[in-house]
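For the sake of clarity, the format in which proteins appear in this thesis is described at this point. The fold follows as a row of integers, each naming the local backbone shape at the matching residue. One such record is shown here in full, so that the layout can be seen directly:
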Amino acid sequence: MKGHFIHIIFPLAFIAFQSVIFPSRALGYDPAKGGIIDKIEVQGNRFFSTGKIKDQMRLKENRWFNMFKKRRFNLKKAEMDQFAIDSLYHVNGFLEAESKIEGVEKENSRVIVRVIIKEGIQTKISKISLSGGLAEFEGKVRKEMKVLKAGDPLNRVKLNEVAFDIKTVYANNGYPYADIQTLITMSKDKRQAEVIFNVSEDKKVFFGEVSCKGLKRTKENVAKRELTIKKGEVYSRAKIIDSEQRVFSTELFNYISLDAKDPEIKPQNPDFILKLVEKKPNYIGVKAELAQNRPQTPDQQEYLTVDFTGKWGNRNLAGTSRKIGFSAYHSYKIIPKIERLSNRFAVGYVEPWFLGTRTVLNLDFYYEPGVKSAVQPYRIESFGGNINFSREFKSYTKIWLTHSYQQVNIYNIPPEELESYKEEQGINIRRKIILSGERDSRDNIFIPLKGSFSQVHTEYVGGFLGGDNNFYKLILSWSKYNRLTKRNIINVLATRLKFGYMDGLSRKDRVPTFDRFYMGGASTMRGYKENSMGPKDEGGDATGGKIMLLGNLEYRRALFWKFGYTVFVDAGNIWFRTKHVNFKEIKVTSGIGIQFFTPVGPLRIDYGRQLPIKESPDTGRFHLSILYAF
């Protein structure tokens, strides 16, 4: 009997020992890695398709192309998928829906994932109403409530968002303590629900004093002058956020926060604390670059150059937010012999509040003493600079006024050779005034999902300013981005219209070739070679034009992981004179593109074809670029 007992117990103990010491063999797969997913089965779903359910999941079925990194079952991912599936049902009115995900083991480390769903009853909104609150804000509140409609599935997340938006209306108009209650009355069968937003406004609140904390170098008025909140003014949450953004834009601080004192006691005149962490005011930088230069003519040799750049600056002079910077640049030829090529010295200064207004004055000046040529004993000296005024109006609008001055002196050259030498060396003295403005409401400058960007740019070159050129330029540009889904993903229809016109100040004034408009390439007309469109010289090279018309239409969509795609149509052309403009000459291209999203914007490859294809059968062209075309 005893021997029989041992005969039975020993194998069981051995199996138990194996299951503890070698669990991967006992389960049929390594639980640290998880079993390879053969199949995902979805059960109990009637409202949503199986494909829709699988789209919510991080767990995916293993495919033949996953030979290097198998798709395995993971408990953490399963929990996240369960939450995602439940959320999908909950935001669509299935308030009691619940799901369960389990892995069923097979042989050879394989797993079948089963998703078991209990949908329950879908509840829809039968009526939406408002009670309480102040009559003066009723119009704004009802505007926020328009996102909800009778017949929509009951979505508690959306109800909370609307309640928050209603509270924001009151918080931006002096009632930060307003209480918004969302009351839901369900029908007996739970298929209908009446929603009531009940508002209790509480007392009206006004701003109190603002004190600063954390300042060591910066003067207190430098931070306070950026604030849009004033003592005695009606409380506004929007002004608090705007104040924080304006203080941060000074580039003096690593961290800022503007918080009310003692919010728990609900004071009627709350004081605020502006907490700040300052950046170090001084900065320094040194850079060296080595380059090999190929000969441009047969009689020249290859040579090696080394460039040195050094800079120093202070972003907060004496705690006033004024900025100053110095830089020096030196370039040398080191092979086949050592020779100094060029020097450049520059200084910049920024006055953030010019004449006590929020107008930024930016001054920068440079000086290039020049060096004598090894072939000709001429020395080219140049100096100049820019005076720039900029002013921001409201949140999205900004204007600039810039005056640029340049002077070039050539020494040790006979007067009769001066003009021909300037033309040979491409020396062009330019003096101009630029007036430009823009309105930018894009939510993201690199990957905009919504908003618009409008720009007006004008230049006056030469004339009473002096210099070698005399002309004016006007550019008008408008871009619009329409998000085609409520989800925060890339699904955007983007459009752009652009017009440009330029001409000499008089009939005899010639617009330089390098200042003219050019078109064609990755950012204008895809399907054409870069800057190849418009008037051409006898050799077939583009010479640019004085009139430009451009239109772009682009559909942008997320693809998978960090990839996206676009489908686009470009249209436009350039002409040399007004009398040459012919709308029948507007060129059209179309194509597709792929983007890879990086921290500095999308890296894209576009393929464009000139239309109609029958007239241009061999005109397809690839374009590689960073950032969207517009």
Notes: Residues 2-21 form the longest helix (20 residues).
